[in-house]
Amino acid sequence: MGATSVTGVGPGSADGLNKGSEHMTLGVGNLIGPKVVVSGTATLVAGAAVVNYGTLSGDITDYVLFLFDATDGGASTVPSFSAFDTQGFTIAGDTTNVINWMVVKIGHE
Question: Reading across the β-sheet that carries 98-105, which strands appear in turn?
Answer without folding.
Answer: 35-43, 98-105, 63-69
